[in-house]
Amino acid sequence: MGQRIARLLAHIPCFSDNVLHDEEPKKFKETQETKDGSVAAPSPIDPNTTVYVVVMGSTGSGKTTFINLASASGLGVGSGLESCTNEVQTSMPFKVGGKQVVLLDTPGFDDTSMTDTDVLRIISAYLVAMNKQGARLVGVIYMQRISDLKIGGSARRDLRMFQELCGEEAYENVIVVTNMWGTVSEEDGIARENELASKDIFYKPILERKGRMMRHDNTQKSAHHILENLVQKEPIVLRIQRELAEGVDITQTAAFKQLDRELSEMAAKHQQDLEKLKDEMVQAEQEMDEETQKELAEEKQKVEEDLQKAQTQASRLASDYQAELRRIEEKLHVREV
């Protein structure tokens, strides 16, 4: 890929109907590193035509691959379930449907290197920084592997977080993109597609509110066709952006409340596992089974660590979010004109 370029988004008009800040347009600028680690010079982005699309989904769902294919960018792609995205990344600007488009790559809520609260903090701070500057967010893509035999608890948890971040009012600007069709038979793929579209625990609520589900065949033409269905839409403000812009503490947002419920359920399960392990350890001790005792002790330590992590994950979110927001605004060189 060619060098990654820096971007300057200057004098962007605020949202017409969805404006949350009654203020003058500000400069919105981000520098990008080239592949050799140097910082490229700023490149102007036309404020009259530039639109943004957020790409979300579970780790390994193909978010970064889709973005690189659509934009000819060179963002790092993870291997398997190992994520390469630990912050929001932006694509190179490119043209689709007469608009200059920038795609935002986000970490998944099942990221291997971060907690879910870390992911919420990072995504929220970036979206709020964008919204404060009037950057025109026109849609959200949610990547879904059609190759998944079943949608497990982790994937459903990711989807619930995604829905709370967006809010029902933004579903019309959401496209669920199914990919990896080449790894399944057409019959199996269609059956899974129908299940995803027809069940309340999956994408039915989004589709009922004018969201769309589209297939991606891993070509640039396909990626651009999907984006053409978003770039002409009116800008939106996501629920998390609106809540935080109105002064709601991040721990009182709909997304955090959903996360807190998930963490509480997780902690309860870990506690049950811990009690079961303790009983098994007593039995192994009575039977003088040293090998089993050792295995159970190691498993007990891991469960205790997971329990502690689930119980304390959200404790510093509010302060960490403010620090992250300041970091993002500094990175984006946010300043008054």
From TrEMBL:
Pfam families: MMR_HSR1. It comes from the Eukaryota. Residues 291-308 have a biased composition (Basic and acidic residues). GO terms for molecular function: GTP binding. InterPro entries: GTP-bd, P-loop_NTPase. Residues 282-319 are annotated as: Disordered. Residues 53-119 form the G domain. This is G domain-containing protein. It comes from Pisolithus microcarpus 441.
